[in-house]
Specification:
By secondary structure, this protein is of the alpha+beta class. The chain contains eight helices and 18 strands. It has helices at residues 2-20, 29-33, 35-54, 68-80, 97-105, 264-274, 324-337, 341-344; strands at residues 59-60, 92-96, 124-126, 130-134, 141-151, 156-165, 180-192, 200-210, 216-221, 225-230, 235-236, 244-247, 254-261, 281-285, 289-294, 297-303, 311-318, 339-340.
């Protein structure tokens, strides 16, 4: 009896954790193909994400010598994330300058400048003959959810969404939704390097976008559909003939759900004509779902007849093209959570 109860409790916890897990971007085919390599470099990419956010860096260019603050910051994150393991006493690690320089050199492709006491990094205390690293410093975890991996003989290019977690350390896929905040987009170029602890050293990175803090809001239209959307869509626009019509505070992005007369085929013909010559990406899946994406516009439609008449339920999001990474992430959330009841029951 106790054994059965334990099994039931374990299953309940697994379901509860899965239900509350944060939504993440879908992996590309290359990321799925190279999951082992992505897992190997994950600690280094996490460290890059953290130092980029901590130091408010947007770019570290190829073939340039890193600044001392970046070197010291990445070394600290590497030790903090246990990418590089050193002896600690009461949660603190002391490294002589020559040892710190050697460890830092394992992380970068370019030659690193010598560390010195003048560089100030949170968690690092400069001493006369070395640096003390506080590896039990209370701080929110910053990591990277890798979604794309491009591997060649000469380099590994990784794309990821940066996130932070309050009070816990976990991957974005395992994290509870209410503890996770998305921070920005990260591109990292790594180069094979035998002295690196992960087999690749850092050649460059960029953070082209910082995301708006957002939580997910549940919306239910009775007997019709349900949807989760980011709360950056906070302004009710009250457009006619819509079930949901929202915009961001500055009006640069909009989100609507409405019924449109016709079939998916007729809707597709209209969309293609409207965007003729602009090369939209379309997909028709199982005669029940239609997707259109182009610069700054996403439309997702399900066939949903009303009162015996052909009709489609259409979700549309428009957004500024300079924020493409952020809104592509939201597109994944919208796509995964948009449930049309007539479609879901077949």
């Amino acid at each position: 009896m106790k054994c059965k109860l334990a099994i039931l409790m374990a299953l309940f916890l697994m379901v509860a954790i899965s239900a509350s897990a944060a939504p993440t971007r879908d992996l590309t085919e290359q990321a799925l193909l190279h999951q082992d390599i992505a897992a190997r470099v994950q600690p280094l990419v996490d460290a890059v994400a953290a130092v980029a956010i901590d130091l408010n860096l947007t770019v570290f260019r190829n073939e340039t010598q890193p600044e001392p603050a970046l070197v010291q910051g990445l070394l600290y994150q590497s030790l903090y994330n246990r990418l590089q393991v050193v002896e600690t006493i009461d949660g603190k690690a002391f490294l002589r300058f020559e040892d710190a320089n050697a460890l830092a050199g394992q992380l970068f492709l370019a030659e690193t400048p010598a560390l010195d006491p003048q560089t100030v990094t949170p968690g690092v205390l400069a001493m006369a003959d070395g640096l003390q690293f506080d590896l039990e410093l209370s701080r929110d975890f910053i990591g990277a959810a890798i979604y794309d991996v491009q591997l060649s003989e000469d380099e590994l290019v990784v794309k990821a969404d940066i996130y932070t977690l309050e009070g816990i350390v976990a991957s974005a896929e395992e994290a509870p939704e209410d503890a996770l905040t998305w921070l920005g987009h990260l591109g990292v170029r790594l180069v094979p390097d035998t002295i690196s602890p992960v087999g690749f050293s850092l050649a460059s990175f960029s953070v082209p976008e910082r995301y708006q803090p957002a939580a997910m809001v549940q919306f239910v239209q009775e007997n019709l559909f349900e949807l989760q959307y980011p709360d950056i869509f906070s302004v009710q626009t009250d457009l006619e003939n819509t079930y949901l019509s929202l915009s961001t505070q500055d009006g640069s992005a909009t989100l609507t759900v409405r019924s449109v007369p016709g079939t998916l085929e007729s809707l597709k013909a209209v969309w293609l004509k409207d965007h003729e010559g602009k090369e939209p990406v379309t997909a028709l899946e199982e005669d029940m779902r239609l997707l259109l994406t182009k610069d700054g516009v996403v439309r997702l439609a399900y066939y949903n007849p009303l009162e015996g008449e052909d009709s489609c339920l259409v979700l549309e999001m428009t957004y500024p093209t300079l924020k493409v990474h952020e809104y592509e992430l939201y597109q994944t959330f919208l796509d995964n959570s948009f449930v049309v009841y007539s479609h879901s029951v077949g």
